Structures are given as structure tokens and as C-alpha cells.
Amino acid sequence: MAGVSRSAYERWKQHRDGIPAIAGTAERRLLKVIREIHAESDGTYGSPRVAGELRRRGWCVNHKRVGRLMRIWGIVGEAPKKKRTTTIPDRPHRIGDRVRGDFPPDTPDTTWCGDISYIPTWEGFL
Questions:
Q1: SS in 3 state form for 83-122?
Q2: What does the mean pLDDT of the chain come to?
Q3: Which of 21, 34, 74, 99 is the most exposed, having the fewest neighbouring CB atoms within 10 Å of its CB?
């Protein structure tokens, strides 16, 4: 004997693989289709999209059921990271170095330096 009570063994048999025995056949068929849809999407579809695709294929299924099955079996939709461009350089309108490295001025307020690329005005940004 494995040290398990008879009632615990019977409960385990009924809920083997996380799926109750009564609904097991339908759940396994649904899980097979979920895996197919997930594979067709190259692993990008999550439960909302999978549920929508199941409905398009004629299944009457709730998104919560699909989410539960995907969570139990570790099926996760992953969105590819989008490349994000934050600054687009404007090559023709580039301002050169007007100070030319001559930073120690002879008198005050003759040479100003800054590191801004725009100035806010009432008419917009310069």
C-alpha cells in the first residue's frame, strides 16, 4: 500500500490531469484545439484571442474557461517586443559647433553654451 486512503485515491482518479472525469473528454478536445490555435499564432495569442478564434471555429466557450485551461497547462501568449524609436535625427538641419572649443571667453556674457535641442515659444517649439 502506498499510504494513501481509498477516498483520496478515488478523488485523484476523478481529477487526474486537473480535469474532472465527467468533463474530461470535452476538455481534452478543447485543449487540443487551444494548443493548435496557440501554435498557429506562433505562441503570441493569449486567452482572449484564443477564445475569439474558438468562437469563430464554432465552439461555444467562455474566455474564463479558456484562460483557466491555458493557465493549468502553462500555455502563455507572448507579444513580441516592438522596436521603439524615440528620437528621429534631422540630418539636414543640424547645427554645427559655433563655439569651436573656445570656451574661456574674454568678457562675461559673450559665449553661451547649452545642451537643448528646442526652445519653447508662444508660437511653438524652435
A1: CCCCCCCCHHHCCCCCCCCCCCCCCCCCCCCCCCCCCEEC
A2: 81
A3: 74
